[in-house]
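In this section we walk through a basic example: taking a raw amino acid sequence and producing a predicted 3D structure, encoded as discrete structure tokens. The instruction is simple. Fold the sequence below.
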Amino acid sequence: HLGILAALGDFAAGDWLSVSGSLPPGYEPEWFTEILLHAKNKGAQVAVDTSGKGLPAAVDAKPHLLKVNRAEIEELAGGEGEKTFGSLREIQTACGELKKKGIGRVLVTLGKDGALLCGDGGAYQAECPVEKIRSAVGAGDAVMAGFLIKTNMGESEAKAEAEAEAEALKF
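The resulting token sequence is shown next.
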């Protein structure tokens, strides 16, 4: 994995490194944490959207943005199958716990219920009614990408999240 670390190089102020997907076969979660910390130490703002063994490793690296879905935030809050949130308030509380661990912002995609962003400025919910969901594949990726683009353009957190959600739901 030294080749990946070398390939990352340096980052300019304000650069984002977006890391999405599962851990490659044969790689341990500690490797993932090391990559994320290396990028942060090189000046990158780190955004992560992962699952499985990579998710706790991402939390350990304290990214600037962690994108999770409902099942993933439930898993982080209480272990797989042990926690189910019945309200948006419970999800917001779990986001607050992640922020206490050093994560900058938590963006939770909620399927047909939109998304919730918990950042330094508070919590924002974006709702985009959809008559018929065709597929959720790629929707979380699109929300995170839209959010990063909009915040990089100077949009407020709330406006960036709402616009990112709207774009993602056009799929």
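Looking at the output, two observations stand out. The chain has a mean pLDDT of 81. The CA atoms of residues 11 and 55 lie 24 Å apart. In the next section we compare this with other chains.
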